[in-house]
């Protein structure tokens, strides 16, 4: 695989670089106590410890296949096997490492008939779930919800968005549609409950809202009598309600309201003197406010955060919405059955039901002697039940961190690693890991101090740095944010610019862009930061669903909308503007009448337009794509759209990266059982594609790919498990971190056996928000930059009742926090930063000087850069139109340098074998590909053999075939798959997931050749091993395809080649470079390296062994090549046969090459 295309590795590796475990880790590894719970803080090497404990079991004679290890992602399971193979050899492949969903799939496949399943069932892909939810929207009754797919009035209010969140929430708690329908009852009765609230509020208005303003003892007695009357009204309403389902919980609610009436009356009586003559005069208004007789707090009453009738109405509203969604949920389940599909949540639910059969459970538990669970704080209710059923003799080992429990919002239960686990397993042994291998101590001091203020914290861990990081004095910088988000974004950009330039006391040398991560609490926080980085010319990478609002993605979706509905003139105008760049005059002409825009585009004579070629291109493209929209699948139409329009060529590099997420989603429909039809509504639905990863059950959170050459921007949740030298945390303000109760919290809680009034979910969210902050802080290795500000004091007025008084007037049985749950995060930061923290507001974040903005002088007038560019473009247009007057270039006053962008941070060049190999061919291509990272020519340029050429009769490029083979080999090695059939299956899955189906046949031919050569019999010790090699001040990164052990015991470095030509073992620098890299990676030197040819020139394996002298010679050649790479320039190029593969042929230098 090309090492230049590999993502940067920011995955946490804390503790894994130490050959010997630390004492606390060793105690856990050596312990024979079971069950055991390990609370491992951030960066303390928990996975390392768990893997070493499994190694110790195997060394003590336990067969690897008697150990079941459960994780949340396939990558984690594969990584565990890989580490075990490195230590134990082939035995490591036998470890039973699964995700929670994968082990359930295995059980259901084994006992399909017992589980009442057709053995041919399939697992619904995320695309299937997406399509099914869209498909069943028409079956919802819409009594209480809007039928709009996406409601522009608010995030999450559209039917599709609601249903995508509702179904997984219910399934994770094991709540079925029948369960919901029984509980919710008749929708007509739910509708009548609105009148119940109105009647109670009307009674409050009648009995406890008064016209007088000065209380007296008699008036307070009258108020108490009014409360008694209100209580009687509520009691009468309660008696009209049912005794089961919603009715029963409403009875409980109203009984609590009756208690509130009694408590308020007691309060008025007990504190009469203070109300009449003291400081509590306004207290007489409290009953009317709490029972909804006021629309807002009256004078003297503080913002309590809730009213009693408001809470009652909220519960009724949620039940009403759930009634509509339950119909959609039931229809979704029926469609799954029709298609013989199970979604990810079904796998666990059905497996739990299967294990209730004693015979099946006995067989399943007999397969393993030990069960090990990673990240246990992230398990939900059904996963906890699964673990209980799989464990025998209490031989359970769980590791996790209650301080990093940040997924309660999607079903995880922090109590699973706390009191619930203690209750389920007697004699639980507890251990902790507190030594942090990742961060400087000041960063850990901040993280520790912040958690000390968390009331509900279940442990007292204190993270401590090790080695030199313990003595670090630098690590935390605070920046007081400007008033507006744009001001704050500029401050962040200023700080990053200084870090990249090394112009700060916080950096001994310049940081790379990929060393820096911006971790946002919410997706929208990234938008102004992205704009500021763009202006500064700083490259960035948006991870996960942060790219949903990308201009490029929006334009492509607009094109699909216009094809689905030609009458959608908003979308069509966007495409004409953004893709075809029609001028304003031509757009105005097309939109000049009431005639449909699409018809005018197709019918108006070309000569009426100022730029007829652009209009003609748009017309032809739309006509061509419209002709095939009825006959092509959505995925194929999308690919045709990109090919026909060359739309990617009109997007920036960042927009093309953003578009890759949509590519992946649409490609996944090819692998799914459901093929959706193209419609405007479905394309709008595609715009919500980030929701799938936010609500799907496949994994808690898959780690995104990270970039080595760009600032990584992602949500805090996406960053869990990653680490970066520098982490920037923006928008640390109370309003942006405000806790909230999620829509179905109470309903889910009640249907899981809880009470309607025993939990304050907003307070639970506040606790989780504090843990999210802890996770964010502990991602930083060297520097944590905190950007935020305090809020203006808009709370209680001086003459308002104190909130403590209001709290005392209410019953202790009410769960809600008076004043509302809040998280004043900037106050927390200010009180938690260590003494060594510095304020970077006026230093690190201060404006960066870019010099005089005057770029040129034209006709005696100074011009700024923007004005100069505008004038040059105007002159260029006049030249194209033939209207430009002759001008002496020496007197124009606008030098070419004036058009250059302002000087920004200078990024160091990064080197890999692939970049050095490109340099040996052409300096210009190296400069374009690896310095500028220029985009490729559009397909219309028509290079005869792009991407390394294509094989005869194949639609795929050699590069695509190689990528598919390499990824198949990597996954097969990690999973211990050693048969051709097993490799075929992996290749099938990867081809569908990566959109590489055209390469599948040739990749399978490569697999056949691999198994025909001797390398297939060698033991693979490491696959796709990434490395970073420091050599003479240069940094070289890359990926080694495989490190193997031959039957004679000799270690060999192998590079797979799916190419049509062989490499010289003597002249090429790739092999010696990898040998040098392995000196840093492995204890034992490896001197033999070679190529395994699986392309048309194979099957063959060619290797050579390097002597010390040969390595030194190769090292000198590599250094020479690195020095040359530092000097590559655009104006240096070499024309030749290689030009036919160059992605930049439009530049014309290939015209000098002798290419047929």
TrEMBL record:
UvrD-like helicase ATP-binding domain ranges (all copies): 19-440
Protein's organism: Halomarina salina
Catalytic activity entry: Couples ATP hydrolysis with the unwinding of duplex DNA by translocating in the 3'-5' direction; ATP + H2O = ADP + phosphate + H(+)
Coiled-coil stretches noted in the UniProt entry, renumbered to this chain: none
UniProt xrefs under PANTHER family: ATP-DEPENDENT DNA HELICASE SRS2, UVRD / RECB / PCRA DNA HELICASE FAMILY MEMBER
TM ranges: none
Entry keyword DNA damage: yes
Name of the protein: DNA 3'-5' helicase
Keywords: ATP-binding, DNA damage, DNA repair, DNA-binding, Exonuclease, Helicase, Hydrolase, Isomerase, Nuclease, Nucleotide-binding
Chain segments carrying region Disordered: 1-31
UniProt domain UvrD-like helicase C-terminal: residue ranges: 441-721
EC number: 5.6.2.4
EC main group: isomerase
Superkingdom field: Archaea
Lineage summary: Archaea, Methanobacteriati, Methanobacteriota, Stenosarchaea group, Halobacteria
Binding site for ATP: 40-47
